[in-house]
Protein: Large ribosomal subunit protein mL49
Organism: Paragonimus westermani
Amino acid sequence: MLPVYYKEKPRKAAERSHGTRPLTVIRHIDGDMWALAEDLRALLQPKCEGGLFLCQVDEATRVIKIEGIFLEEVSQFLLSRGF
């Protein structure tokens, strides 16, 4: 099983929008996290609304968070890369 998860995070008051933000979370990453984030950007940027790709790389916890629901795309990408 791949460490790719779906998470909903409440929106902040400053966003002036109600509801939650959907996140795709990749955990337990070993290796170059920044290179993986750039590869995911190249894959997912055309699929994002308005072409805005939001990604957060956390080296301390070995987690990449991507705004949006991309579970299937990320899983297929990781499998094609041999993870």
Remarks:
- The chain has a mean pLDDT of 90.
- The first helix runs from residue 33 to 44.
